[in-house]
Amino acid sequence: MKVQINPERCQGHGRCYDLAPGLFGDDDEGYGTVVGDGTVPPDKEQDARRAALNCPEHAIELVLEEA
User: Fold this and answer.
1) Single pTM value for the model
2) What is the pLDDT of residues 45-66, one digit of tens each?
3) How far apart are CA 64 and CA 17, in angstroms?
4) d(CA 67, CA 34)
5) Is the four-CA dihedral 12, 64, 54, 26 of positive or negative sign?
6) What digits encode the pLDDT tens for the residues 23-39?
């Protein structure tokens, strides 16, 4: 699984990096950013889902990788 943030939707509420700080950070203006290449370790998948569900603008996209 990978996470992505749609910058056109993000309004900078910061819930993503509050709920999943290992997966998301913020830029100089407080908008959410993805840490690294967005790969979510198996033990952090629940955090990624929680962040996506709590984003008011639905700016977080979960991308399931094919095996």
Assistant:
1) 0.91
2) 999 999 999 999 999 999 997 7
3) 20
4) 22
5) negative
6) 999 999 999 999 999 99
